[in-house]
Amino acid sequence: MLDCGLDMTSTLNFLPLPLVQNPRLSNLPGWSLKDGNAFLDKELKECSGHVFVDSVPEFCLPETELIDLSTVDVILISNYHCMMALPYITEHTGFTGTVYATEPTVQIGRLLMEELVNFIERVPKAQSASLWKNKDTQRLLPSPLKDAVEVSTWRRCYTMQEVNSALSKIQLVGYSQKIELFGAVQVTPLSSGYALGSSNWIIQSHYEKVSYVSGSSLLTTHPQFSVVFQPMDQASLKNSDVLILTGLTQIPTANPDGMVGEFCSNLALTVRNGGNVLVPCYPSGVIYDLLECLYQYIDSAGLSSIPFYFISPVANSSLEFSQIFAEWLCHNKQTKVYLPEPPFPHAELIQTNKLKHYPSIHGDFSNDFRQPCVVFTGHPSLRFGDVVHFMELWGKSSLNTVIFTEPDFSYLEALAPYQPLAMKCIYCPIDTRLNFIQVSKLLKEVQPLHVVCPEQYTQPPPAQSHRVDLMIDCQPPAMSYRRAEVLALPFRRRYEKIEIMPELADSLVPMEIKPGISLATVSAVLHTKDNKHVLQVPPRGGWGPPPRPAQPTGGKKRKRPSDDIPDCKVLKPLLSGSIPVEQFVQTLEKHGFSDIKVEDTAKGHIVLLQEAETLIQIEEDSTHIICDNDEVLRVRLRDLVLKFLQKF
Amino acid sequence: TPSLIMDPECSRLLPALCAVLVDPRQPVADDTCLEKLLDWFKTVTEAGMGEGVTVDFPQRPDRPSLLLLQENPCLVELLFRVLKAHDPRPRVLSFSLRLAGLFAAQEDCFQYLQVSLSRAVDTIFSLQGDSSLFVASAAGQLLVHILALAMRGPAEGHPSPQGCDWPACAQKIVCHVEDSLRSTATPQVTQALNVLTTTFGHCHSPWTQGLWVRLSPLVACLLEKDPIPASHSLVDLLLSVARSPVGSSDCGLWETLAQTLSHLSPTQAGPLALGILKLQDCPQALKTQAFGVLLQPLACVLKAAAQAPGPPGFPEGATGDSITVDTFLSSKSACVGLLCQALAHLELLQLLPQRPSPWPQAPLLRAAVAILRFCHGSAAPTSDVGGHLCAVLAGCVRVQRAALDFLGTLSQGTGPQELVTQVFAVLLEYLTSPDSSPMVLKKAFQATLRWLLGSPKAPSCCDLDPHTQLFLGELLPVLRKRLCSPCWEARDSGLEFLTQVTRHWGGQAAFRHALLASEVPELTGQLLRDPESYVRASAVTATGQLSSWGLYATPTGPEHPEVQQESLFTELLHILSTDSEGFPRRAVMHVFTQWLKDGHADVAEDLEQFVARVLQAASQDLDWEVRAQGLELALVFLEQLLGQPGSRCPYAVALPEAAPPATLAQVLQALCRVQLFEFALRALFDCDRPVAQKSCDLLLFLKAKATPCGGPQEAGASPDVVSVEAALQRWQAGEQGQPLGELEPEAVMAVLRSMDLEGLRGMLAKSSDHMEKSPQSLLQDMLATVGVLGENEADCY
């Protein structure tokens, strides 16, 4: 299974979870059907023209119907955003396999999950709505509830216990480490340049190679995004039979550099006018980029006295983690880890008291809180977390600004339950993942035989149908897939590598057939275990148990139905060569056969011994002697045929 | 200059240098030295041609160039040996060829050289293909010189095209050119075309007509080849012929040009079309065809962008033909290249007086807007070509820059209001877009400025028209945001724009109103403390300009809410005294000078105090430009006190003045109070020559103003000059720390009178390297680098 992401856009259909009693939200009118039927009015509330589910928010899980997840052996994780559904899979589907991920991915993924659980658990909500999910009922609801997919599979958030259990099933890996999976394939994570510990994966056997490219970034020479992480490893992706491409930028028209400029300018303008800035964000990722840019910017903009607050249950851990994963940083930042200077400048912002971080708005924060200020806090969906509080607090003043930087959520939908809103809203999505120009360069560089990608990438965005530059353009055209579609990857496994034990190899006597090509017959036992094939010396004087092969080399031990030795009959020589028909006929005549007739067929010849009522059918790769119950004749003819062939 | 004549010392050094140049074992000095040497020879040879020079140098012999050759046989020896060398060094070869060309350009020298050189013509032919471009180009030019001189004899008549009456040397060269034109190898064709281009460019004698008649069929044959070889050189040749007297007489040429235009690819035809349109007299039909070629790419864009059949576009012949479309579709680089070329050519053309008329302003505007929309991704084309253009141009900075420049130039003309609205809309898109690169943003600001300043005034009053006012309302928030950009280039371009627009519109009520309502002036003040020095400098200029129009109020940002409001003057003075970078300090000096000229309120409040403080700060500056600008400011001050230099024309009608001019004594007192003398005298011994020169000029002006009036000198007082002169001597010796102390006007005037300021000015006028620039020094240096002059250890490198 490649990645295990969680679709959190489902939460946009729910009412926000306020941290403190909120009369506005608790007094919203219930929603009733057009005919006045009000049986849903406890579950659905109306707010400024939109209908929301008044319940604990629920998440949309990965597809579970299509395959039995208990049969999944391995999950490969490419970055911390793509593992948020892990507890649902590992804890509730009978999954017994292994999850592979890099260490920073797991640690920061844990932070994201912990924050999510914390946000939801600290505001317990008694009500859990389910009536609206009834298919017949859902049809009657207004959009977007009506069009929500798979609502019956939506689930409430997992618990910390489940998170811990899920994470315990993860095996940590390092970049370029080769991991054998059951001997069948080898998987290798490569740096993808997108986030701390983010990886692309290579899945290869001896003769086939599949690359899985997800969430990569090439912003290596960028002044703003000063290459925090190890740069993307492109060279290792070469010679792929198939390249599965996903996780491209969600906002192909917005370049991150310009967006950071917008972010900074709008922030400065708001604060200058005495307003506050709210930045809904995840506790890791883009926030590092923003803090680094602000670090350089605030002095020039005369904002040194403005406090920056980072509020998250995991703020402290997040800021500390990013400073210690030295081996995962780019070279430039790596060297800083060993210097008194921290690799990320936010440490200096903290030291100089410009950036302060708090687990929540309760406690110390309320004492230190000073306005105007800039607050970074979650959750970007605006449905839970401390951000809900600030939306309620600052939403009424046009001096304040909320700046959306995370590209995952539609900002208009996120804002819907807060309308009408006086505060300014700025949309500066910062997505550093590959855009289509970069993809095109990457594909030219890597040259995979086939590209497989989501259908959306093979056509221009629906809103800009003329932008043919905003799609994947490659030769041969990319194979696309859509939700729940089963796709056969365009290659066939035709060869397997077989090892020959040294003793056996010693005994071979190769014969040169053509210059440079030698053949040797091998009599051996083919031992197959964990998808490794080994030719071993056959036991002398009978078939005993074979010696154990010199492995296993990792992978999970599995019981295969038969580790038994196949029956072995007397070994017959192998034949090669071809039979020249004219000479063969002459030989037959020499040996007393007469009345010989030769017929040409599509595949060769038929030599007809009319007198003996016998047929010799000579084809490129077979010769048949068809005679009527005359074994002596058959053997005679056979020996004559064999004279023309070489034996091994 | 005296260096025109070869002095004995140079003559003594020259043989040694020539020996070094022909010796393959000796390292040759760098190209620059050889270039300088050539320059020197050029001045020597040119002195023999002009008439005016004779007046300046009566002692000059009649034929200096020939004399030079005759008296320095080492030169001819050099040319001869280099041409005969098996493997001459390219630098030396190129130098020798050009030297030969210099001399050969004069008939007497040519004849002197001819004996040896005509034998070398074959060598020169082969050198045209030399791998060194210098050598190849010099060989080509030499051939032209030889040809021109050889033809000088029969030039009086019209030699026959067949060439039977041509001198042998010329015949040889022309035959070589003919052979080359027939060659299938492009480099050969290129060489021949280049030789002809130079010939027609430089020689305007009647024989060139015969040459063209003889060679034009061969040139025409080139057009029939596919692809056309050396198309670039061919274009150069045709234009060169068209510009020469041959062009005005030969009507066959116009046909060739027309044919060439239609045979060349759109990219190749562009430069030819522009060249044709620049010609003074050429048939209208050809001009129309050429203009059509230039318009083709834009016609294609218009066609691709059109949703529906639009208003009439370009004239006939520029309708987006299929070849241009093919070029657009062939590759991204071809498409971008063609568009950029067309935009640049049309931009050049628009500025010319002979530009085509009627000028298709409206379709050009539409095309520029369409291109900018394609680049921005905001166009919604319906055709296939449109879709392709959209994909190719999206985000293409090169085209964006070219199109914005072009659009800016189009602001000179007008357009229908609906189009002008579109122009402003697309400019606003670029100014707003976060994706505009810093350079594109700068260009967008520049184009916006040109369109704004070109926009008409409302007929009823002298204020801005309603459209412009509306646009300003949208523009100022964008400018405000750009001034907050984390990208310093964006802040800088924003400030430059603000300065320019304020300079022109500072008095317009609508502009003033909109600007004051925006936050822009406050932000500009904030940027005086920007970490980037260029931005600080631009902010200084902008605040200075705003303040001149009374549009600047000192900001109270969140950063310094506690700081008492201080005047901009104090703030700028602070920058002048403390800023670590030169640019902001220079900008401050410019602003102060302007303020003084304009009679700015902050200045007028206490003029002397202002001048004194500025001069004090400037005198201590490490940057000579700041000190020089200080003198500029001092001069303005002086002029205001004493009147403009030369304004006291005895016949001029005296203008009524508000206040009677101060007496000289009062003026001198004032100058002493602001310590202008100390500043100027200190500057007189400044280690940077421009500062000293400026100071010298200033003191001379003062001296001239003071002396005829008599003045204090006649009062019989005996000023204390000794101490002043002693201090000045110490300054001259480099001890600048010594203060001058209290100065009496009388003492100053006495010192000025006793100083030889004129002499000092003459000395300062000589460039500081006048010693090192002499040919003798050059020869010595070149020889020194190869160690021939053992005793001369001086090394100026």
Automatic annotation (TrEMBL), chain A:
Keywords: Cytoplasm, Nucleus. It is found in: Cytoplasm; Nucleus. The keyword Nucleus applies. One of its GO terms (cellular component) is integrator complex. It holds the Pfam family IntS9_C. Residues 534-564 are annotated as: Disordered. InterPro entries: Beta_Casp (IPR022712), Integrator_9su (IPR027074), IntS9-like_C (IPR048660), Metallo-B-lactamas (IPR001279), RibonucZ/Hydroxyglut_hydro (IPR036866). GO terms for biological process: negative regulation of transmembrane receptor protein serine/threonine kinase signaling pathway; regulation of cellular response to growth factor stimulus; RNA polymerase II transcription initiation surveillance; snRNA 3'-end processing. It comes from the Eukaryota. The keyword Chloroplast does not apply. Residues 287-415 form the Beta-Casp domain. Component of the integrator complex, a multiprotein complex that terminates RNA polymerase II (Pol II) transcription in the promoter-proximal region of genes. Belongs to the metallo-beta-lactamase superfamily. RNA-metabolizing metallo-beta-lactamase-like family. INTS9 subfamily. Component of the Integrator complex, composed of core subunits INTS1, INTS2, INTS3, INTS4, INTS5, INTS6, INTS7, INTS8, INTS9/RC74, INTS10, INTS11/CPSF3L, INTS12, INTS13, INTS14 and INTS15. The core complex associates with protein phosphatase 2A subunits PPP2CA and PPP2R1A, to form the Integrator-PP2A (INTAC) complex. INTS9 is part of the RNA endonuclease subcomplex, composed of INTS4, INTS9, INTS11 and inositol hexakisphosphate (InsP6). Interacts with WDR73; interaction is required for the assembly of the RNA endonuclease subcomplex in the cytoplasm. This is Integrator complex subunit 9. It comes from Camelus dromedarius.
TrEMBL record, chain B:
Its main location: cytoplasm. GO terms for biological process: cell population proliferation; DNA damage response. InterPro entries: ARM-like (IPR011989), ARM-type_fold (IPR016024), BRAT1 (IPR038904). It is found in: Cytoplasm. Keywords: Cytoplasm. GO terms for cellular component: cytoplasm; nucleus. Belongs to the BRAT1 family. This is BRCA1-associated ATM activator 1.
